[in-house]
Amino acid sequence: MRGRSRTGEERPVGNDIEWRKCRAMTNGEASRYHAVYSEWKTDPEGFWAEQARGIDWFRPWDRVFDPAAGVYGRWFAGAECNTCHNSVDRHVANGRGDQPAIIYDSPITGKKRTITYAELKREVEALAAVLRDQGVEKGDRVLIYMPMIPEAAFAMLATARLGAVHSVVFGGFAAHELATRIDDCHPKVVIAASCGIEPNRQVPYKPMLDAAIEMAENKPAKCVVLEREEHPYELEPGRDVDYAAAVWAHMEAGTEVPCVPVAATDPLYILYTSGTTGQPKGVVRDNGGHMVALNWSMDALYGVKPGEVFWAASDVGWVVGHSYIVYGPLVYGATTILFEGKPVGTPDAGTFWRVIEEHKVAALFTAPTAFRAIKKEDPAGDFIPRYDLSSLRSLFLAGERADPDTVKWAQQKLGVPVIDHWWQTETGWAIAGNPVGLGALPIKIGSPTVAMPGYDVQILDDEGHPVPAGTLGNIVVKLPLPPSCLPTLWNADERFRSAYLDEFPGYYKTADAGYMDEDGYLFIMSRTDDIINVAGHRLSTGAMEEVIAAHPDVAECAVIGIADSLKGQLPAGFLVLNSGVDRPVEEIEKEVVKLVRDEIGPVAAFKIALAVKRLPKTRSGKILRGTMQKIADGQEWKMPATIDDPAILDEIGEVLRRRKVGQGFI
Ligand code: COA
Ligand code: AMP
C-alpha cells in the first residue's frame, strides 16, 4: 500500500514506514530498550535510584523501596520533596524563568495565553496564599472542579505547594458524582470555575456545585470561584471567595509561600475512576515516585527534551491530563499545551494541525477517538497540507484500543511514527509502550509494544498459571508496582486489596485481558470487568445499571458496551419494565436516558435505552451480557450451555434489528 505526502510524493505506509522512521529517529542505532529493561530487572532499586537523580529532594530517602511499608511496599521511603517545587520553582531558579511553561490555546473561546515559568510561579504562589488564608494545610484535601483553563493547573500546583492533596473532578460529571467524591475525600476547600464550554452549549458549574454540596454529608467550608467572562457567577456569601480578587491581592502584596516539604510517600492527589459499582475508586498518587517515573518517561518513552513543546490533547479531569498536561511536562521543564477545544468543530478538523504549527509541538498525545473524529470529518486529510507540521516527531495514542485503520490513517497522513501505549488511571504512566527516547522498536500495529522498565507483565489463566505466548489470558503485573503506580485507594486499603491484589496473589490485576507474543509484544483485547471505554472515557456499566434500576417503572436492566465506529464503544441499556406499567414505553426510555445524564453526567454518552420483555440469563440467574454484546456487534456467538431460555436471545436480536442498534443491525 502506498500513501501521498504533503509534497505529493508517494511513500510506503504500514509497519514498513514505521520501522524505517523509527530507525531514522535513533540515527539507525538499535534500540537501547532491551539493555535498559534488563538493567532494571537486574537491580530495580539501583535503576530507580539513578532515575531519581533528575528530581530535587529536600531530604534523601532511607530506602529506595521499603517492602514492609504500605500494602505492597513504598518507593523512596524517608525522603522529603515537593512536587510544586520540582514543577515550577526549580526551573525558575535554574534559568528557565522566561521559557513558556503553559500555552493555553482555546479555540472554543478564541483566547490564547502563554505563561512562562516565572509567571507560573507568581500565579501559583498567589493562589497558594489564598488557599492558606482559607485554612488549607499539609494533608488537607482540595477538590478542583474546572474546565481546561490555566487556572486548573495553577490550582493543582498551588495545592501541591502547600503539601495538600487535590482531587480534580471532570466537568462532564453531574452533581451526584461530584457529591460522591466530596463525601469520600472531605475537601476543606473547593476550587471551581463559573462554567465549562462545550461546542453546543455552556455548562454552568454553580448549579452543579450547589446541588453537590447540598447532597454531600461532608460539606467543604469554602469555595474559591473563578468567574469566567463567558458566564457570570453569583458568589454565595460566607462560602465563596472570588478567585481573581483574592489572587490579585496576593500578587500585589508579593506574598511568598514556600513549598512545604512532604514525605515522598505522602499523597499528591486522589483521582476517582470508575469501579465495578457506583462508588468510584479513589486512586492515590504519591509525590516522590510519581515525579521520578514521569520525569523518566518524558525522556525515555516520549523522546522529548526539556524546553520542547509537548501536547497531551486530553482533559485535566483524566489521568492523562494529570500526568501529561500538568506534571510530566512541568517536572521535566518542557512546555505544555492546555487546549480547550475538540478535534473537530472548533472550528474544523484542522484545529490539531493549526496548534502543532503555531506552537511547534514536538510530540502529540491523544486518544484514538480524536483521530477517528478527524478522519470522519476529513477522510482525505485535506486540512493537513495547509499547515507546517515539521516540528512533530511522533504521535502517541492511549486510553482505548488503537484500531489499525486509525493508526494507518494517522501514520500515512502525518508521516510520523504512531505509537500506541497502554496504561490506566491506577498506574499513572505507561505499562507498555514503544520507548522512542531509547530508540523505538519496530511497531506491530494492534500492539502497544512492550512492558516498560518497572513492569514485569505476565499473562495468567483464571487459575493463576502462566499461559504460553499467543494465548489469551488475564494481564497482571508482578508486585511491587513501579514508582507512580497507586500505593492504595483513598482510605480503602481493603478495597484496594480485594479489587486488585487478591485474585492473583503476588500480582496486580489490570482487569484487562490479552496476550503476549513470542517477541514480548502485548496485545490488549478487552476488560475482564464491567468497564467500557466511550470516546476514551472510562465508564462503569454497573454504575449505570444502579442508576437505571432506581427508575420506578424498571424491574431489571442490563447495560452493555456496543461497538461504535467513532467512540469505540457506546453504552446500551436493556430495560424490563414492571408488570402493569401502562405508559408509553418510549416515554420511559427517554426518562431513563435523562436519569443517567442527570445522575452520572453527559460524559456517560448514554442515549440508547431499549425496553425488552425479558433479559437472557443462565439457569443460576446471571445475565448473559457478553452474548448480548456479541449479538449487537454482529460477532459470532455460541449459545451458552447454561442458558435458561434460548428464545430470549432471539427477542433481543429482534429489538436491536427493529431499532437499528448495533453494528450487526445498522
Ligand atoms: N464538560 C461538560 N460536558 C462534557 C465535557 C465537559 N468537560 N466533555 C464532554 N462533555 C459532554 C459532551 O458535550 C457530550 O454532550 P452531548 O451529549 O450534549 O453532546 C457528552 O459529554 C459526551 O461527550 P463525548 O463522548 O466526548 O462526545 P463528543 O461528541 O462531545 O466528542 C470526541 C467526541 C471524540 C470529539 C471527544 O470525545 C474527544 O475529543 N475525545 C478525545 C480525547 C479525550 O478527551 N480523551 C480522554 C482521555 S485521553
Ligand atoms: P483509564 O483508567 O481511563 O486510563 O482507562 C484504562 C483502560 O483503558 C485500560 O485498562 C484499558 O482497558 C484501556 N486502554 C488504555 N490504553 C489502551 C491501549 N493503548 N490499548 C487498549 N486499551 C487501552
From TrEMBL:
Pfam families named in the record: ACAS_N, AMP-binding, AMP-binding_C
Domain AMP-dependent synthetase/ligase: 91-478
GO cellular component: intracellular organelle lumen
GO MF term set: propionate-CoA ligase activity
Residues in AMP-binding enzyme C-terminal domain copies: 544-622
SUPFAM superfamilies: Acetyl-CoA synthetase-like
InterPro entries linked to this entry: ACAS_N (IPR032387), AMP-bd_C (IPR025110), AMP-bd_C_sf (IPR045851), AMP-binding_CS (IPR020845), AMP-dep_synth/lig_dom (IPR000873), ANL_N_sf (IPR042099)
Chain ranges of the Acetyl-coenzyme A synthetase N-terminal domain: 33-86
PANTHER family in UniProt: ACYL-COA SYNTHETASE, ACYL-COA SYNTHETASE SHORT-CHAIN FAMILY MEMBER 3, MITOCHONDRIAL
Protein family per UniProt: Belongs to the ATP-dependent AMP-binding enzyme family.
Protein name, as recorded: Propionyl-CoA synthetase
